[in-house]
Amino acid sequence: MKLRNSSRVMLISSISSNPMKAFEWGTDVSIENMHQGFTHIFESTFESTEGVAEYISHPAHVDFGGLFLPALEKVVVFDYKPTVFRL
């Protein structure tokens, strides 16, 4: 799967108008081959679960999902609170 430049612009511009703190994406580079068919990851970071709820219903997110989701074969979504272990 490739994101066209116009899709990247739409995605990035939608981020600036919602409660998202950070957004990262990448492709699988593991040598262990345990990806179970998943090749890309998109990680969004929020301050709170309220921010997640606001983002999910945000028009920019809904519009982008309508364009992006049909291009995907399958999706896994995780909502989690990270546990940080400082070394």
Automatic annotation (TrEMBL):
Pfam families: Dabb (PF07876). GO terms for biological process: pollen tube adhesion. Residues 1-80 form the Stress-response A/B barrel domain. It comes from the Eukaryota. PROSITE patterns: S_R_A_B_BARREL. PANTHER family: PTHR33178, STRESS-RESPONSE A_B BARREL DOMAIN-CONTAINING PROTEIN. Homodimer. This is STRESS-RESPONSE A/B BARREL DOMAIN-CONTAINING PROTEIN HS1. It comes from Salix koriyanagi.
